[in-house]
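Explain this record to help learners:
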Amino acid sequence: MSIRPIRLATRALLLHDDRLLLVNAFPGASSTLWCAPGGGADPHMSLPENLAREVFEETGLTITVGAPALVNEFHNPDDGFHQVEVFFRCTFIDGAIADDWSDPEGIVHRRRWVSRAEMAGLRFKPDALPAAAWGAATCAYDPLERLVRA
């Protein structure tokens, strides 16, 4: 097993008309696994800024990013991959899921809005996704601060 740094990612809990936005981020639709839109965090940008950028790239939608609702961690011991994801409650501002849209990075190939009932028939990760999306709980988050040295 190789040692790799832990990857930090952000994900959007975006409900519209009581439907959650999910994406399939596997090349050529090679998997049936769905997840919330988002992606890796770039250094020196706040997590909300990263998330708004990722959601726009992956879906063409403009959002505002609210409070965090879930921290998820997963790993693959076979290849050393380890990721921590922070899921934020988001609000839809503008845009539409269009058939002629394409992710500029070529990662997301399918997007869809799903009801909570429809999630029962889908493969998705993390397991806590429906409870986080439709639940009321939030966790505290203090946005990016500059380190101050004494």
About this structure: The longest helix spans residues 47-59. The mean pLDDT is 87. The radius of gyration is 16 Å.
